[in-house]
Amino acid sequence: MRWYLAIPALLFPFALLCAQDVRPKDVRDIAKSGSSAIPQLAGLLKNPAKDVRLEVVKQLIDIGGQGSLDPLIQATQDKDPEVQAHAADGLVNFYFPGYAEDSGVGGSIKRIGSGIKGMFTDTDDQVIDAYILVRPEVIASLGKLISSGGSSATRADAARAVGVLRGKEDVPDLIEGVHSTDSGVIYESLVALQKIRDESAGPRVEFRLHDLDKKVQIADIATVGVLHATDALPTLTDILKHSSEAGVRRAALTSIAMMPAESSRPLYAQYLTDKDENLRAAAAEGYARLHDPKDLPMLEQAWKDEGKTAPRLALAFAQVMLGKRDVSQFSPLQFLIDTLDSGSYSGVAMPYLVELARDAAVRTALYPALTGATKAEKIGLAHVLARSGDQQTIPALQKLSTDKDSDVAQEGLRALRTLQARM
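Below the sequence we write its predicted structure tokens.
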């Protein structure tokens, strides 16, 4: 056969695949070739059949790799909202493996904690590590979806994705999301802003503090606290005093405690003995951040008298913050370290330790504690030091990265990379 007669025959399979009768099964067969199939799959993103385009996106996610990013970015502009949402999840999945299955539209959302601590923590595992760099085009494509996605579910999914990728460039889009009329979009936009921690956004979301949707209201209360929007303190105080919802009041006092002010001291005194253990914990956090050594004897006595774990942890945090930094059998700092072994409260102890370890004296006390620590404690402290360490922390993390337990060693190396990226 002459070469110019063979060209139509060679082009026939591609032409067939672009036709309307291509089926999802055909897409799966093509994808069996792995990364070499990506150009052919990308061509099928123009197929008129939604089920074909959706299958293309799913196969691109499974194949992964750098080559999948451009087609997935293209797919975020698809006319169908389901295709858009899966493409957004695929982009996150490249940087955060497992996201598409666990937390995207095809999975169930997993967050640390079921209460306020889950919103205030520095250790939410639904964010990429600091050393991971995300292509600007990826963040830009997700930002567009927040405002122009084909459905409210897609816009909410995009907002969630931006938070996981710490997409600071998309803060304006998230602010627009907070102005949405859909509670899901509002909620995910607020949680994303908490993860990104751009404090300039705080005053721009205060208008949701009295939202009629309790879930949105609590998320907004948490957000203004995390972002230190001090102008919101009078409103938060009013909510604390007048709300009939226990969860809202707990969120309000926790947020107030995030923004230490002497004017809030009477609130801390009032709620330190409240019958609600979470309000007692929030009050203790407030005392901690006032940094007044004169409060220490009162907090020591409250710790001895307290029988519930959550306020005991908060009172331990407060004592360490006010100077009790020794690591001994019954010391407050050792209590926080020990709690890293707790399945129920490790997510509470860890953010306390992250905040405390910003103090060089606390970090110095933590380094020797690594020697006799359990596996869970070593992994927890690796996360703490990654987020709050400095140049002097590197030897401790290097030692963890060579631990005989492979899980500890892996987390030690990850923590070392995170710390170096921060520095």
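The CA atoms of residues 236 and 252 lie 5 Å apart.
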